[in-house]
Predict the structure.
Amino acid sequence: MYWNPVPRRAPIFWSILLAWRVAGGVAHADCLVDQEQSLGSALVHTVGSFGESHYRVAQTFTTGVNGVLGEVQVRGCVSAEPAGTGPLTLQIFPTVAGVPDESAGALLTHVVPFSELPVGVFPIPDVAFDVSSYALPVQDGDVLALTLSTPSGAFLWVLRSSAPYGGGTAWTREESATGWTDNPADLTFRTVVCAATVSVETPQLAETSWGATKSAYRGVVVPD
């Protein structure tokens, strides 16, 4: 499940803070970066095929504000090997005692073809998923699970072998199994929340960098 795709001679890029912009927009006080875990490493967690096994991977998080989920970011790419056709499925599930709970179905399901994702790119880039059209409501204190899965091939999700994020942790489940296994690690992710009373079709954020807008694991509004 865990492996280092970088040759020994290659520099480690994962801890570099990367600037980003959503929808090329300007600062908007009604959308904010809520939760994030930006500390990567030279390790990735395989979503999908790994050897003879096939894995579904999750990161739990605790929302810090009320609103609707506008965007999710992860640091990852499609693996060049094993070759697969995808697609990649992003889902949001509730949790029970901090464990992803799939029993009642997903709160949100977003499917992305492999052809729309970076493949075998190093350093591994940040990938943004616009989920604003689902208008999923979130409340301060909700503990949710962000899961990624694919029926064919593999997606490499950058992780941190320690657990720097206090609002959740990484989880793994073999597709043929029913229970989740927690990992002493955190996966890289970022969530954007918009005010429920504002159109969330194109959340607008100021250009910032990983880690610049997070205090502990509570949400911090992006300044105008």
Summary: The longest strand covers residues 67-78. The domain at 40-189 is CATH 2.60.120 (Jelly Rolls).
